[in-house]
Amino acid sequence: MRLEGSLQLVLLLALTWRATGLRIPLEVEQPPTIVNHTLGPIIALPFDNTITVRCQAIGNPPPEYRWTKDGQAFFPSNSSKIRPDQKNGTFVLHKKDLFQFQGKYKCFASNKLGTSMTEEIEILVPSIPKFPKETLNPFVVKEGEPIILKCNPPEGVAPRQIYWMSLDLQHIEQDERVSMGTDGNLYFSNALQKDSRPDYCCFAAFPTIRTIVQKTAMAVVVQSCSVTQLRIPSLLLPSGVQTLKVFLKGEAVQLECIPEGYPTPNVTWMKMGGNMMGRVKLSNFQRLLSIPAVEERDQGKYMCTAENSAGKAVHYFDVIVEEPPKWLTEPPRSQLTVSGSDVHIKCSVSGKPPPVITWRRNGEIMRGERVLEDTVVLHNVRPEDSSVYQCEASNVHGSLLANVNILVINMAPLILTRDYQEYAVVLGEDVHMNCSVFSSPPSSISCSYCNILKHFSTILFILRYFVDDDMLQILNVNLSDQGVYTCIARTSLDEDAATALLTVLDVPDAPTNLEISENGNPRNISLSWIPGSDHNSSVTEFVVEYEESKWEPGRWKELQKVVGNQATAELALHGHLNYQFRVYAVNAVGPGPPSEPTRRHETPPAPPERNPENVKIQGHLPYQMDISWEPLLPIEHNGPGLEYKVSYRKLGVEDEWREHMVKRHSFVVRNTSTFVPYEIKIQSRNSDGWGPEPKVVTGYSGEDVPTAAPRDIAVEVINTTILRVSWTQVPYATVRGHLGGYYVHWVRGKSLLNPNKVLDEHHAMSFPGKRSHAIVPGLEPFSEYKLTVNVFNNKGNGPKSDPVTFSTPEGVPQQVPILTASDPHKDSIRLVWGPPLEANGVLSGYHLQYHLINETSLEVLHSQEVNISGPDTTQWQLWGLKEGSLYRFHLSACTQAGCGPAQAEESRTVTAEGKYSGSDFSTQRWFIGTMCAVALLTLIALMACFVRKNKGGKYAVKEKEDLHPDLESQEMNDDTFNEYSDSDEKPLKGSSQCSLNGDDTAGDSVSRDSLVDYADGGGEFNEDGSFIGEYSGRKQRGSVSEPSGPGPVRA
Q1: Which of 532, 578, 531, 580 is nearest to 557 (CA)?
Q2: Is residue 81 very low, low, confident or very high in pLDDT (cuts 50, 70, 90)?
Q3: Mind listing the pLDDT tens digit for each residue in 614-629?
Q4: Which domains are present in the chain?
């Protein structure tokens, strides 16, 4: 029973304002609140197409926006290069002319109640970093003296990484004597003769903008001394005896001491009056002291000592830890208040040095008696005091800004939740009922509820109810919670109310009163029932289940589904079974419990109602046919003595059916002809009679391998690597199975370059389906082949055709594996190369092109060609070249079919003064270059022999096509094929290289490739000094030559 009356449970809700600010509905007039804006600074990267500066606010009336740039009014809508957002203050800058938009911006959002503002948003447009073009004199020092090579890296987008390397991209080795400082300079505590070299290069990498620039190479000459004198240590970095260092709390600390002296001094560190253990890390050969995240306890005086056998030097660092402004607890909150009250806005911040606090009202600076340092006091406020107050705290390290909305309003309660709100909850789950209210002053909220169960204790009732702000939560809802709830909001001015209906949902109750009635046949019955309660969720369907005692007693199975508005079901039953039935209902919550079972209902035997399905005919052996099918389910037997009649006959040949009775669900027909079509049908029968007339299916008896070979094999060689083969198809009767297609086999017997060597390289491809021609790729030029064709089916391959012998014509040679330039003079250069690994024909000679290059524009100024006769030639002396000039060489090997791809190299002739290579070393360099070339050629010959020895099997078609592109072969692509092989052949790939060039008077250089592979792999420079290889990790063309003096070096 339910208690009808006015029993009320009053739940007082204290309406509190969150730290995130007032939750004032937009229906109420209020000052603007900025909800989304860009946080600066914005760095415009070179690959950014646009820059979006966001500013979005809410308020009532809707706010209007204005911007300032560097303190001056800025109007985005007045510029054709800016796309403003019509809905808010956001605007978009386009990539072009970004430099003119550098500056510090502020956004202001205003309506009649106040103005909210953002912190400064700085836009930075960095220029492409570059080193200045300069000519540097060599650094000449005596052995034992210190050296400082200054990098002076350009500014750019952080992070910036500094590297010291030679022009051939070898890192300058660093140790206790030679080390790089955090300023990027390279410091030598004392010079040794091995430090003499002409190519000390400083590189600055900027990963964010994917750029690396190179400083002009610097030369160091160390003059030898008969006796190196001891030198007392002093510090190259820092200068003086004491340094003041100021760090922000949480920053990484770096203190550095780089000494000079002979012998090389050792560096030690200590903290005066403190312990460094566990807080510091020493690196760069003890020269660098680091603290990952500095704290106040790290303040103090640190001392570094540089000491050797001649004496010592010390330096002191005064470390001071400061911090930018931060909120002590949280930013000041916005406040809602009524007329006549007092308002205090406190801006509690900390920082070192102590922040200066500036107060603004609607963006304008406040002065006067209302401002008391970190607090603004508003006495006896009135509606006109409603504004946005800004607290800005700043010191030398940064600033904080908080917008504080003060809304002075007297407003009766306004319930924002829709009246007559309906809530539906499943029995046993939890529900949250909302009652959102706005008023000033805040309302007290009560919840009125009727229909409480008599036996329900008040304590338990309260324990299941929780109030959170304007939300009522009921745990573990039961049926007694269903009813009408009223939310009442009261203030001293007025009150408002809203109602809500709570409906409890559950699964349907079980149907009752199940009745069975026969429809003139015991196997066709009607089942009826009375539905149970749907528990506030309509029944979508009823499910009828059955259980039978003959085959699976005790197991309930689904028999039929009925729509939810129907309470009867017409059931068709199987024969020779003893049934009982039950029903359950389903609604949106889920399925309900089943009803009680009906009485037993027995059906009499009857003939089968269907025949087997999914009849399959297979021929696993040539002279038999395997027939199988899916048997009837036990309940489908409809009576005792179930068996199957298998009937079959040859399609279109026999009129009479051959019949067999079986109890299993498979049958094997033996002594059949090979691959002959048959008609088959399967019929069910039990003790009460036959099933319906069966359907006829068609299948084939077993396959055997084909007996005939294709005839009239014809081969048309299209080019050096591709041919077209055709044949006459075998008669269909000889296939003796389902046609799979044709196999083409070819054997490379010998190369016409070496006809006495037997190769015996086997290859094959399959071409599916009925066809009489195919395109065969992947042949080797200048070779003799034999080719055969055979047909295949599912059982196997037929006999091969008579072999056809053919030869492929000569092709162009592969690329020359190596080309080097050596022994440069004013007007001549010697070229040395190795022969191609695969000549693909009779090598007739080489074709050489050489071009005079403009080193500034990289354009070709003049070109010449030379045809070098004689296949055994591996070097050539070029005369008549221009003094002190850059040349590019292209060398190709040739046969009668033409010349192959060219290998490239670059080199420079020397000047009259002997630049690029000194006269002392020219003979040595030529000798070294020649010896290196001989060694490399020997290695290539050994690799070629190894590849030849292991060659065979499948031809790697894709790789060959990539190495020898052929328009004809691309046009022959329309034939699909598969391939198989008993071994693999992969062509030897020569690694391509890139020429490098540098100039000791070159200016800055810029590369815009990825830095991902910078630390790995080989690298090089192009003509203007740009760093490419080690920076991008990509393969380039190139050459190898000996470094010589201060001139350009290639690697």
Answers
A1: 580
A2: confident
A3: 999 998 898 999 999 9
A4: 25-124 (2.60.40.10), 139-323 (2.60.40.10), 332-409 (2.60.40.10), 411-505 (2.60.40.10), 512-603 (2.60.40.10), 616-701 (2.60.40.10), 711-808 (2.60.40.10), 819-908 (2.60.40.10)
